[in-house]
């Protein structure tokens, strides 16, 4: 018998336990082990029914993703052994039953779950479809529309929803769950004929009567799923469940699965999945570094970011104290938080009750003496050193020893901030992205003196608040924003040289960004960048000027909020319409500057924008500010909306080839000047024939 699955008898019930830590994944040996145990139960005259459960309060989290795309085909006979068992098998789900986990449960005759369990078919998130019967069995249990929603959406569902949908038969408390499962198995031991999901076609009728259901789904996902194959294949799989006999449906699902698992989309999504996990590894910070566990947080400043950070902490169940300059600003911050929550209630993503629970975790304060016992403080005041330094002097005096003193600065020198305190080892950057309660990225910025314990504590904190933490070193703009600077410059220079904002936006949207970068600028407000440029021009008369966006701002075209920016906007309509005014500004500028407009191909636009940032990332790696190219990918995926099904900007560049990227950058260096000077790191990789992300 496989060591990964064991069989024990509890009276007349055979208990089959999957024991494959840490998450009981379906690694080689587990499926075969389950089949052997079911066969054993069937062969034992004393066994009347069986329970399939996972060790450690976890069912089967899913397939082993590491095995995917390697061409290993797991034999499938084990599924038949489980599904065609002569005695009833009850899947007893605690923790997660996702993907292959839920598919295994659907091979069983009954499914019960604990109150806290989650189920789902999230395969679409890694570019595939359920490949072990999910597309055939979920619609038979839950109905066709619900199956489409679950499989195409890829979300995790709480067990209560699983029961409402008909996927789960019953729910029990986590306490004494195994006993409840055994009692359930005893109750159904004599039921014949055995219910098998494959035989139950009743819920397919819904779509037989309404075949438009599939096209409606395709239409619904068209925008979000553009350039992707997996979401459409999920629909085809469910369609096959309705239109084909069960075994033919399974064969169709298998065919689709095979096509997808080896394709670039799945490779990129698997890369993104593993790269996010790898980001937790920082070269000089061992896994067993002691940490400060964060059980309470203070936030200084309740503006755009401070209020978002406060909500993020409250959402994660942490008590938060928020400090503002005065009562008035504090009231404004609390109002802002409440109204943002209320929008979520209107959208249906949280309940009014949850808002009250979260608001109750937030305490407004005006004195530093009210913060001292918090484990962590996050400063989010104005982005000015002369405002931040006095705040940190105060924090040094009032916070308990060992507390994490974090700044949300986007670009300021962490070491200078740390030097304002007598404990620079406790000072660190925790850079959230806007909106802080939505964006997943947390850039963790190490100062020169930041201790390893504080870095490791912030990594843990990121997990605690459901963010993806990525550690990097200290420089102007850190890794994320600094790597975006050339992108922003290049999109503006393309406009000077011959492209229009709508051309650039179309290319980036078609590539997979949710919006084009000019439309994003209009959404965020063009005045933000303008203020920054004015400061840079004042500080450095030689700073590169961007006359086109400057003129646009001088005309008050700040974006959506003024109903005019790079594009024109109509009342109550966020659609960007190409603007004659902007086209005139651009053509006037070109005439004045003596620029003969060039015409760019879509590929040139895309590559000029992305290659410029790739070169910058190489420079940051060369300086040792970033630890690995893959970290930049994690940041771009979670902070900048880079399309996940392309893996990341460095992974994407690897598909083109480091040498080809280097050659193009060198050619642009000759043609366009110093800003394209290739990074020595890039040159070295190209010469050595290496890649960014896999060596
Ligand atoms: P904001 O102007 O919206 O908010 C700043 C808040 O700090 C204001 O409410 C102000 O009253 C308060 N404040 C100022 N001085 C204070 C003091 N001494 N004590 C207490 N409160 C004080 O600014 P924001 O956009 O929230 O930015 C805050 C920080 O976050 C900045 O460092 C900024 O660079 C950074 N950041 C901003 C963004 C963004 O997109 N807005 C993104 C990432 C990081």
Keywords summarizing the entry:
695 residues, alpha/beta, 2-enoyl-CoA Hydratase, Chain A, domain 1, Rossmann fold, N-(1-d-carboxylethyl)-l-norvaline Dehydrogenase, domain 2, 4 domains, 8-stranded mixed sheet, 19 strands, binds nicotinamide-adenine-dinucleotide
What this model shows, in words?
By secondary structure, the chain is of the alpha/beta class. It has 4 domains: 258 residues, 2-enoyl-CoA Hydratase, Chain A, domain 1 (Alpha-Beta Complex); 183 residues, NAD(P)-binding Rossmann-like Domain (Rossmann fold, 3-Layer(aba) Sandwich); 95 residues, N-(1-d-carboxylethyl)-l-norvaline Dehydrogenase, domain 2 (Orthogonal Bundle), CATH 1.10.1040.50; 87 residues, N-(1-d-carboxylethyl)-l-norvaline Dehydrogenase, domain 2. 49% of the residues lie in helices and 12% in strands. It contains 29 helices and 19 strands. An 8-stranded mixed sheet has the order 12-11-10-13-14-15-16-17, with helices on both faces. The protein has a 6-stranded mixed sheet with strand order 1-2-3-4-6-9, with helices on both faces. The longest helix is centred in the middle third of the chain and has 21 residues. The model has no long low-confidence stretch (mean pLDDT 96). It binds nicotinamide-adenine-dinucleotide (NAD). The site of nicotinamide-adenine-dinucleotide has 24 residues, from α13, α16 and β15.
